[in-house]
Amino acid sequence: MSSIQIYTDGASRGNPGPGGYGIILMWNNHRKEISKGYRLTTNNRMELLAVITALEALKKTELPVQVYTDSQYVVKAITEGWLKNWIKTDFKGGKKNSDLWKHYHRIAAKFKITMHWVKGHATNPFNNRCDELATSAADGKDLAIDEWYEANEYEK
């Protein structure tokens, strides 16, 4: 059984600032690119939203999923148990991005996911393409609103 390969990247112009994500989904001979920009967000939110959006785009829950990201924040939260602890304590202490982490936790339960960290802005052509998609989305027109962030985090 072949696995689904997902490459993701997030970007923001300022932190907070305009941001975006880029995704490449690959399975057998199929490849799909996805990107979206937001008017005000953070880099970490875009990194995590890229993974969530990629998982939401999958139609096959029975196949193993390999996620490649240059975000140590995302990889370590998942592989080192930070997320399990945050959920157990209901994000006590003001952990950021609780809306996205809760969403990730719900959707990830449907899949067999293996997380992989890749060095950003290096020799991985898929990561580099995701970076192009993310930065282009952040620089785009008609940017979406990261409603939860603007309502809950930006004013803090």
Helix and strand content put the structural class at: alpha/beta
Whole-number tally of structural domains: 1
What is the number of helices?
6
The fourth-level CATH homologous superfamily is Ribonuclease H-like superfamily/Ribonuclease H
CATH level 1 class label: Alpha Beta
CATH architecture: 2-Layer Sandwich
Oligomer: single chain
Please tell me about this protein's structure.
The chain has 156 residues and is α/β, with parallel strands linked by helices. It has a single domain (4-151), classed as Ribonuclease H-like superfamily/Ribonuclease H (Nucleotidyltransferase, domain 5), CATH 3.30.420.10. The chain has six helices and five strands. Strands 3-2-1-4-5 form a five-stranded mixed β-sheet. Helix 1 (43-57) runs parallel beside helix 4 (98-108).
What are the key terms here?
156 residues, alpha/beta, Nucleotidyltransferase, domain 5, 5-stranded mixed beta sheet, 5 strands, 28% strand
Tell me the layout of helices and strands.
Layout: E1 4-12, E2 17-27, E3 30-41, H1 43-57, E4 64-69, H2 72-79, H3 82-88, H4 98-108, E5 112-117, H5 125-138, H6 147-152
Parallel strand pairs: 1-4, 4-5
Antiparallel strand pairs: 1-2, 2-3
Helix pairs in contact: 1-4
